[in-house]
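Reply to dn_fold:

You asked what the input looked like. This is it:
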Amino acid sequence: MADKQQELSSRHLLGIKDINLNDIQLIFETADTFKEVINRPIKKVPSLRDITIANIFFENSTRTKLSFELAQKRLSADVVNFAASSSSVSKGETLIDTVNNILAMKVDMVVMRHPYAGAGVFLSKHIQVPIVNAGDGAHEHPTQALLDAYSMREKLGEIAGKKVVIVGDILHSRVALSNILCLQKLGAEVMVCGPTTLIPKFIHALGVKVETNLVKALNWCDVANMLRIQLERQDIKYFPSIREYVMMYGLNKTIIDSLKKEIIVMHPGPINRGVEITSDVADSQQSIILNQVENGVAIRMAVLYLLAGKK
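and this is what came back:
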């Protein structure tokens, strides 16, 4: 065990494709420690007491931003929040200028969400501090994939050999791509399920199965991760109506009860109740949606802590 990895192989977390299996396992082990911390009466550790982290969000976010902020405060970091809509970005300031101005205030790490794929990679070539990608367009959302896989591991014991189906708007989802890459690195089999119009053409190149029949997909899987329809990213109609989508791909109690086995149900949020999932499924014993939320803080604490050591 002497060669056990003690630090991440990368100084940034830009995407799951840039980290290896050992990195993922190190993040999980570190998160185990922090999960114990956040369940204590005093939920704070002084691990990042001298670190200042800037949360730079060029796109709206509630859950991810709150989760990162909570993780930072639990680690005793100083936090600077920056919302692009109320900043000089709206006056035409460039991404590099914005970040350099923030770094001039002696910030040690950046957590960034941006509407354009690759924004974090672009930025990492121009600034010298660790960057965590909190979502870039329809590209990647690495901490979401890590917390999803961590939640599965907690429930199932291990992920290798398990079957996971991701259902819904695969085409516009950064969660789907990061989840596929993460689950495959951990040895799971992955299937995507949804209307043909919402499944990207390149999906077969990723080595995943494709199924358009929800019940068949659910009978195949151990875990179903339900995605919402991202109407804000859709410039054309990809299916006739929400009502028809619900009939074909909405997960309800009747479908769950008809399956030949018990499956675990997940959702990265925000949930559109009554569309991709009904309340009686979202709030059922088979759902681990609230576990995902709790685990999100522990995973983000782990990522921030490990990257702070790479400065």
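The CA atoms of residues 100 and 179 lie 31 Å apart.
Hope that clears it up.
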